[in-house]
């Protein structure tokens, strides 16, 4: 049975508002300690395999080092403020549904993530970033009470969110 081809518009459809460039973008790449742990793991693998063959041990260890480092970097979440939305990793929310962003230092992040942490909250948390921004969710339909987003530049992220909220 033949499939019908979808009809295409005869004239191009104009996009009335092109996507605005991102006002803030940051990849929460792993810290030096993560890469050190990957390297240490590769040393252990090397020591276990070197008994069989030095070239094989070196090749396997080097391949693991490269693969682990690339995987750690590629899978690290990206935080973006663009086109009226905050995106942290795969999660995305319109900034008009967020309250006033508050910056947190390392100690405040640790306290927030402690025993009083609300499990309904969204947290895009990466160690080694040093700070975070927290915002209440204003949408009464959303069961998530607040967002906590790690960043190396809390003031810059908070400013970008405020600027997007003002638009």
From TrEMBL:
Region Disordered, residue ranges: 1-21
Superkingdom of origin: Bacteria
InterPro entries per UniProt: DUF3093
Transmembrane regions: 32-56, 62-82
Keyword list, A-Z: Membrane, Transmembrane, Transmembrane helix
Name of the protein described by the UniProt record: DUF3093 family protein
Organism, scientific name: Flavimobilis soli
């Amino acid at each position: 049975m033949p499939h019908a081809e979808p009809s295409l518009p005869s004239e191009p459809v104009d996009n009335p508002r092109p996507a605005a460039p991102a006002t803030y973008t940051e990849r929460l790449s792993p810290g030096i300690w993560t890469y050190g742990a990957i390297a240490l793991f590769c040393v252990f693998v090397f020591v276990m395999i070197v008994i069989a063959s030095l070239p094989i041990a070196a090749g396997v260890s080097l391949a693991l080092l490269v693969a682990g480092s690339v995987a750690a970097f590629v899978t690290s979440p990206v935080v973006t403020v663009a086109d009226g939305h905050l995106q942290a990793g795969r999660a995305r929310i319109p900034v008009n549904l967020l309250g006033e962003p508050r910056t947190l230092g390392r100690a405040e992040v640790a306290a927030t993530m402690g025993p009083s942490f609300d499990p309904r909250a969204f947290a895009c948390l990466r160690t080694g970033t040093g700070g975070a921004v927290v915002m209440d969710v204003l949408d009464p339909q959303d069961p998530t009470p607040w967002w906590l987003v790690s960043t190396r530049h809390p003031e810059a992220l908070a400013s970008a969110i405020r600027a997007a909220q003002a638009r």
